[in-house]
Structures are given as C-alpha cells and as structure tokens.
Amino acid sequence: MRLLLVTAVPAELDAALPGGSRAGVTGLAGGVGPVAAAVSTAMALASGTYDLVVSAGLAGGFAERAPIGSIVVADTVRWADLGAATDEGFLDLSGLGLAGGDVLPTTGGRWVTDALGAADVPALTGEILTLATMTGTDRRGAELASVHPAAIAEAMEGYGVAWAARAAGVRWAEVRAVSNVIGRRDRSAWNIPLAFDALRGAVGALAAAAA
Ligand SMILES: O=C(O)c1cccc(C(=O)CC[C@H]2O[C@@H](n3cnc4c(=O)[nH]cnc43)[C@H](O)[C@@H]2O)c1
Predict the structure, then answer these.
(1) 91-114 pLDDT per residue, tens
(2) N- to C-terminal Cα distance for the chain?
(3) DSSP at 191
(4) Between the CA of residue 130 and those of 20, 46, 51, 148, 157, what are the distances in Å?
(5) Is the N or C terminus of the chain more exposed, i.e. has fewer CB atoms within 10 Å?
(6) In the chain, domain spans
(7) At the topology level of CATH, where does 3-210 sit?
(8) Residue nearest ligand 1's atom 29 by CA
(9) How remote is the CA of residue 161 from the centroid of ligand 1, in Å?
(10) 3-state class (DSSP) for residue 131
C-alpha cells in the first residue's frame, strides 16, 4: 500500500508523521484551503504512484457530535460553502442549476476504519464538511449543525484532496483530530497538543497497516 498523507500546514505533518515519511507513507503539507489542497494533491499524484490519498490534520468538531481529542473519519465530504448566499438561504451548485460540488462518498474510508480498528484507535465516522471560511461564530456553527445533521466536523481541505484524487482515479479518505469546538472563535480553547497526540496515534495505525 502506497499512501499519500496530505495535511494543510507543516506543524500538522510533523505531528502526524514525525520525520515526514514512513515505510509506505509519504507526507505532504499542501497548504490551507480546498484550492491549495487540490493543486498540491494533483501535483503529487502526477509525479508519484499511490494507492490511497488521506486528507489529515486538525478539525473543528460539532458540539455533542465530536469532542476535542476525538478522531473523525469521513464517510462523505461536502464543500459546504460552495454556492450562493441568497435572501432565501444558501443554494448549493445544484440549487443554482450548475454541475459539480456533489457530496463525495469516500472510496478509501473503509480501509482507514479497518486500520484504525485493528490498532484499537477509537474513531467517529460521519460527514466532514469542507469550508473555505472557517466557522467563527456560534450562530454560523448552529446554522451548519442544523443544515447538515450528519456532519460531525469541519475542516478546510478534504474536498479539494478528494476532488484531485477522484480525477486521478485514486482512492481517498479524510481522517482528522478535533482540536476545537465549532462556533465562536476562541483560540485559547483549542487543545492542539491533545489533538496532535490523537492524530499521531491514528496516522501511526494507518502507517502500520500500509507497511
Ligand atoms: O496555532 C497553532 O499552533 C496551530 C498549529 C497547527 C495548526 C494550526 C491550524 O490552525 C490548522 C488549521 C487547519 O486546521 C483545520 N481546522 C481546525 N479547526 C477548524 C475549524 O474549526 N474549522 C475549519 N477548519 C479547522 C483546517 O483544515 C485548517 O487548515 C494552528
């Protein structure tokens, strides 16, 4: 198994994969947001051969769905702010009569949950939203929780990684550690050390299964 692990920032990669690579796993800090993630992933897939791409890093967890320190695994990913904000509410691309922007079911999520299960790493599975704009108010967090009842977490890159992997015909998944509760931005309430410990454990399990 040749696994490409794509984080947003180098600190996430250092935490997830100390040293940047392991047998069977290549790490890449691809940048923040769906566009940087998609371009970096597409370039990596064009210059190397991989069986699975994993979008990994920190995430915000929806209150009472994914607590700080938990590992979340996507069964589907959705780019939740791709569309139009209208007086009648948010319209996604299909609501605008445009193609693209579909919810993407992961093609490598089962391999990931099996690998985590084999290593006794607890994980929550559900939809992970991709947002170009990180949620920073309680009002927006409550709105997203209501509109997306199956969503357990949000991050900023998963959909971009998935889009690039899908275009290249490579299986993909999203695995994250929850560092903060989605809502009013309060950097002091983020627990990055706890999330990084959890992320290191989860990625270690994936590396063991890939080796
Ligand atoms: O401040 C630090 O020390 C620090 C160290 C490592 C990473 C960070 C980040 O800010 C990572 C940003 C990255 O994390 C995802 N993320 C985390 N929480 C959320 C959220 O509530 N909503 C959306 N995205 C979130 C995201 O994928 C970012 O790219 C800071």
Answers:
(1) 999 999 999 999 999 999 999 999
(2) 7
(3) -
(4) 24, 23, 23, 12, 6
(5) C
(6) 3-210
(7) Rossmann fold (3.40.50)
(8) 32
(9) 16
(10) coil
